[in-house]
Amino acid sequence: MSGPVRVAVLDTGVNPVHSHVRSVARAVVFREVDGRPGAVDEDPPLDVVGHGTALAGVIRYWAPDAELWSVRVLGPDLRGSGDVLAAAIEWAIAEGAQLLNLSLGTRDPAREGVLRSCVERATERGALLIASFGKDGEGDPHAARRDLPARIEGVLSVGADEACTFAVPVVVNDDPPPLAWGCPYPRPLPGVPQERNFHGPSVATAHATGLAARILAERPGLSLAELLLTLREGP
After folding, report:
1. What stretch of H or E contains 123?
2. What torsion, rounded to 10 degrees, do the Cα atoms 167, 134, 179, 208 define?
3. Three-state SS at 35
4. 8 Å CB contact between 91 and 41
5. Which among 94, 103, 87 is positioned nearest to 12, based on CA atoms?
6. How many CB atoms lie within 10 A of CB 44?
7. N or C: which end of the chain has fewer CB within 10 A?
8. What's the fold here for domain 6-232?
């Protein structure tokens, strides 16, 4: 398939009328349906907390022509089900998403098998998972350690680095994991200090996704290794 790069944002939803987003091409909610995780079309699209919208705004900044999909898997507390997440990843891959932004994760080792299978299927279909790699401490709930799926081979794992800015938003790491470091701050909002907005590894991941979408629009079909080489060159 040709056309705009298709980016699925698996998060709290995306507000399509926000000035930083402007539109979403698809919007679904993943939840338990008849005892199994399933997708439900969402009309109108909704963000239950604003987190996914902040991420989508960053992606849109770097890739203004990307086709954004809102895939809601998290609630207002930024929590969700591992089974629902895996089902949403599988759905996005099957539907033809080229990039999956996963500003989330788990340390539950019981989830590794199913998530590893998701990564393998993504690789087979030419899709790429870009996931947050966090860290413990600092009292920041958005900096909680996020190892899976970020630490699975084949995933572009992204950590947050205060040294990264909109001028140099992503730096490829020479000693992974993670594979890259990204700017931890979203696009500014009038009257909202950056430190009071969503920030951390989740936003750093969106910067990497946005840049990846821009690169793939110009050079479709790049492997993860080729994408990392291109990211190293900067925006």
Report:
1. helix 112-125
2. -40
3. coil
4. no
5. 103
6. 9
7. N
8. Rossmann fold (3.40.50)
Sheet containing 6-11: which strands, arranged edge to edge?
Answer: 36-41, 26-33, 67-72, 6-11, 99-102, 128-132, 156-160, 180-182, 170-172
Cα-Cα end-to-end distance for the chain: 25
Instruction: Confirm if 44 and 17 have CB atoms less than 8 A apart.
Output: no
Give, as one character, the DSSP assignment of residue 5. Answer: P
Closest among 108, 88, 103 to 50, alpha carbons compared: 103
Give dist(CA 8, CA 75) in Å, integer: 17
125-159 tens-digit pLDDT: 999 999 999 764 444 444 445 689 999 999 999 99
Residue holding tokens 């950590």? 159
CA–CA dist 43, 25 (Å, integer): 12
pTM of the entire structure?
0.92
**215-131-61 Cα angle (round to 5):** 45
User: What per-residue confidence (pLDDT) applies to 40?
Assistant: 84
Residues of the chain with pLDDT under 50: 136-144
Domain limits, the chain? 6-232
